[in-house]
Write a sequence for this structure.
């Protein structure tokens, strides 16, 4: 099931890349990092530490700056 989900995600990502420029797609892809952080907390009880939240915020801001500047 995991491999099938990964293959499906890969195919959908490739289809998505045909619709939008890569710089926009990468910015939207960073949303995945935040979603995984929140889902890990909600579904599996992972702790939301200040360092994890700061790390996700830093990565998201960095990608946004690069994407908007280019």
């Amino acid at each position: 099931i995991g491999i099938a989900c990964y293959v499906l995600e890969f195919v959908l990502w490739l289809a998505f890349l045909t619709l939008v420029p890569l710089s926009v797609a990468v910015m939207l892809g960073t949303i995945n990092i935040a979603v995984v952080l929140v889902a890990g907390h909600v579904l599996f009880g992972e702790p939301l530490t200040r360092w994890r939240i700061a790390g996700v915020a830093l990565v998201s801001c960095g990608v946004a700056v690069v994407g908007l500047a280019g």
Observations:
- The chain has a mean pLDDT of 89.
- The two ends are 38 Å apart (CA to CA).
- The CA atoms of residues 44 and 65 lie 32 Å apart.
